[in-house]
Amino acid sequence: MDSCSSLSEYGALVLSTSDPLAKSKLSHLAYSKWRHGELSIGVSTPPNQPARPSKPQLVPPKEIPVPKNSGLPLNAYMLHNLAHVELNAIDLAWDTVVRFSPYADVLGKGFFADFAHVADDESRHFSWCSQRLAELGFSYGDMPAHNLLWRECEKSSGNVVARLAAIPLVQEARGLDAGPRLVKKLIGFGDHRTSDIVGRIAEEEVAHVAVGVFWFISVCNKMGRVPCTTFKDLLREYDVELKGPFNYLARDEAGIPREWYDTSSLDNPKKTEQLSEVYERLACIISMEQQNSSLNGGPR
């Protein structure tokens, strides 16, 4: 562990670590060292697949059991699914850091700082989910999970713009849509402790999507491409599907222009913002997130 001299080396090590809690702790250590100026970006090669524990068993999405057949109560079932998403999110963020480390001169230091920060947040989110599962008498791995998120990551392994479109702007944005529904179900189930944790995670995911939008626009600008058109073209090229219902308020806060994903916004200029205004707001969100050191603590 101490032999790692760069952020990308640490990222590759996180990706090669199979134990979920060890992966989470190593992810936090890597970002802490980076934040304190102890690491360069470096250049590394990610593994073809992130290391995974023997459990949960990975199955096609259609084979994931419904709650009543899972052997878990509804709150633990939903929490297990979220833990799986957060574990994948750790690897997704580090894969972005490591895979595109050869292009650090083009992308800039801020790109890698932001995605390392996202990875640190996701590691903390997984720890919260794991701890709460233990409080409920369960653990991560107690039911099957799918590998859909990583397959989406693999599609974009050779194209940084496609990676930004497919992961933060689609996959993580779906978390913004699902978060409030999940919180409402947990409250209805009577588990306010878990609903508070999920609510806190959902709030922090807004900044992660904002990071994706910010860098997507930035890279498009460097390439001389129109962000909205590029986003839609990439979704068609990589066969990435947009699914509603959409949480417009959270997506607006994260800075995704509605015309990028909602065709009903195309003919209504009042529903859209100037791209420069979106870009400035995203920079503000990201800056505030980076300065909020209190996020290293757990939800109250």
From TrEMBL:
<dbReference type="InterPro" id="IPR011197">
    <property type="entry name" value="UCP012318"/>
</dbReference>
<dbReference type="InterPro" id="IPR007402">
    <property type="entry name" value="DUF455"/>
</dbReference>
<protein>
    <recommendedName>
        <fullName>DUF455 domain-containing protein</fullName>
    </recommendedName>
</protein>
<dbReference type="InterPro" id="IPR009078">
    <property type="entry name" value="Ferritin-like_SF"/>
</dbReference>
<feature type="region of interest" description="Disordered">
    <location>
        <begin position="42"/>
        <end position="63"/>
    </location>
</feature>
<dbReference type="Pfam" id="PF04305">
    <property type="entry name" value="DUF455"/>
</dbReference>
